[in-house]
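Subgroup meeting minutes
Present: P.N., E.W., G.H.
Scribe: E.W.

1. P.N. recapped why we're keeping a running log of single-chain structure predictions: easier to compare across weeks, and new members can see raw inputs and outputs side by side.
2. G.H. added today's entry (384 aa).
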Amino acid sequence: MQHNDVRRATLPDLASRAVGGSVVFANDELFAERENLIKPEEPVYQPYTFGHKGQIYDGWETRRRREPGVDHAIIRLGLPGIVRQLVVDTAFFKGNYPPAVSVQGCAVEGYPSPEELAAADWEELLPESPAAGDTRNVYDVDSDRRYTHVRLCMHPDGGIARLRVHGEPVADPRWISGTLDLAALENGSQVTGCSNMFYSSPSNLFAPGLTRVMGEGWETARRRDDGNDWVSVRLAAPGTVHWAELDTSYFIGNAPGWASLSGCDARTADPDDPGSWTELLPRTRLQPDTRHRLKLPVRAEVTHVRLDIYPDGGMARLRLHGEASAAGRAELARRWFNALPEAHATAVLTGEAGLTAQRATQLVAQRPLAADAALPAELAALLT
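Output recorded in log:
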């Protein structure tokens, strides 16, 4: 699998209920509830299960429109970030699917109401595009902006089983300080490589919360050679890992026998060069169905960490607790500020930062901030 394919395949679903997503509004949900859109599990169907309003569907379904217009639902992303791919899954909707869909995104401060969101600055992520019934309709998105909400539109009405919003989480640095999980998706980490993802995505390793079943972790196929499986992650920010949690919960007959951790600083070395990785945790025995908490004997500032499992199997979660360096926090802030839509960036600067509209406009116009550029003083002040 090519590098770009790995990256696309491991992108988390930013909208999933499993990471805190919520469907905050739908203009109509007469036949089937809007909340079904972001359920993490795949849709199911049971024939001849009728309620008072008709066949019960595992999805969102609106009544038949008798006037011009579109039906829409607004989803608050559990992981605000850059949207790379949309999946509009119409599974089991065969005679009642929308013939076309579109998606918009917006970025706002705080926790707006549906009425406030209706007045937000929405930007096109997916123009009105054809959709097929009983199909995973996949649409790539060309965007470099960080959104907090998306709006799914059906043209004109119908039913959709699931909406998947795959992308790159971009953390808000104003909420990150002190010791943190440098590998957490909600802090902005990203899977960069993986040997095998036969049963499930390695991004599950870094999702919020504990797993409830084996399928919510990362599991590889059974190996029939002398190698081992691994996954690498770009940390939320360059920093030092103090201790790790290797969680094999629910993996009883298929947990790895051992695991090790290594780190690399991609600012000064090539992660593709095996010689650039430093061992952080030597090969350590694991127990099935257990949360292992392990202090790292080697502590070095790194940008990437690689988990090796021996020989194969499944892991529920990987937590890497430590501290972001000063340079790492600045990098995180640049990534966030550069990705904000213009209206949101201006609102942050004129709101919490207290800048004049003129000064805010000047700072927004300076983007993108270069990787080695010092943070503007007004932006740096937000991080203290």
